[in-house]
Amino acid sequence: MQAAHSSAHFVTIDKRADSSRPAQKYVPPNRLSLATTLRSAGDVRARHSRLLFDPRRAGGLWAAAQTTGPDNSSEASVDVRNRDRDRINHRDAPGVRVFLMTTNSPSEKRLEELREKAWNDGVVAGRGVDVGGGPIPRKLATASPSGGGPGYYGQPVVKPPVWTWEIPVYFFVGGLAGMSAVIALAAAIFHHVDVVRTAMWVAAIGAVLSPILLILDLGRPHLFINMLRVFKPQSPMSMGVWILTAFGACVLPGLIALELHALHTFTGAMDQFLRVAVGLLIFASAFFGVLLGTYTGVLIGATAIPAWFLHRVLLPIHFGVAGLGSAAALLELLGHRIAPLNAIGFFAAVVESVLLIWLTLDKHGAADRAIHEHSSGRLVRIGEIFNGPLALLLRFFGLIPFAAISFLIGALVTRFGWLAVGKVSGSDPESVFAAER
Description:
Blueprint: E1 8-14, E2 23-26, E3 36-40, E4 44-45, E5 51-54, E6 60-63, E7 67-68, E8 74-78, E9 82-84, E10 87-89, E11 95-101, H1 106-121, H2 166-189, H3 193-218, H4 221-226, H5 236-262, H6 269-301, H7 306-309, H8 314-333, H9 339-361, H10 369-372, H11 375-396, H12 400-426, H13 429-436
Antiparallel strand pairs: 1-2, 1-11, 3-8, 4-7, 5-6, 9-10
Helix pairs in contact: 2-3, 2-6, 2-8, 2-12, 3-5, 5-6, 6-8, 8-9, 8-12, 9-11, 11-12
């Protein structure tokens, strides 16, 4: 048994069956009973540690509270048992409270000062005392990626996203597919039938791949189906599943009807019916395509992740324009070198360049430092350079295929970058606290 660094030790024995006042007896440190074990706890100081019965084991006791400080301290463990021959009786076991007092520490003196000031003035200002095990967290050096800042015992204040590679790929594929349907509608209006067919094929392939990517992230197919059992307009995730389902329900029949009409499979009234159906289905596909291309930005912007929430206005615009430019770039790579697609490419590159400037200037200090001070933020800016200034420069010099490839690479990289930013920002408690100010 090691001697504790305490000024005095008081053992109070409270026998519940006895109505008399509990007696207090001073016990020197070197004469403590063998049933009481005192051991040094390093830099943890026990102040008024109450040792209570543990109902799970015989005679087990546990400490109710501790205060921590830089001075040495003591920790006590007491076993109390009543033996009736070979049996242990817990029902009539006496209650024991052991008080380990350390009154010569700076923290203890500070606590006494705070109590006196609170009693006299009613208001306490200034530095307090950290309490181990209490509701107020201590400041830990490892609480944030930057090496400092507040945290809840080293744990994130909000839960960082646990998404894997399937989700950023889904963001990219879904945005490209949705905006391909928009381009298909515009091409149908201006009678570019070949562009309409290719764009609808791209949209249909994206409508098939997107649920597969979501199911891969969820792990089980029935989880995706279960999300369709509830319709919550206030939930971006619920609305996203329904948007994706409605988009696929319009694109796939629209593609079939378009191919039947283009191949002149039917004649007469049936062909006229297919023509009307194609127009309606392409229009519906474009409507849900716009929602599919932009809702992902709304989805991550509606979370408590600081770097996402603070840029909730930028994200839907960025995701929608990136999807539109990606669809135009892919169609150009598939052989459709027409002026409208080139104009869409110019428009998307200009908007992405402006968004890059906006993202660079719109700083929120510690709240979004994951974008401006971490490698994840550099990933976002690299992607923005590829689908913004670089793609614009390549189009200006007439290098359309290179500009299209640059835009596609940038759009995909930014999706992975925003996911990485969310993970870093969600793991940084100081960013969360700064965003709430």
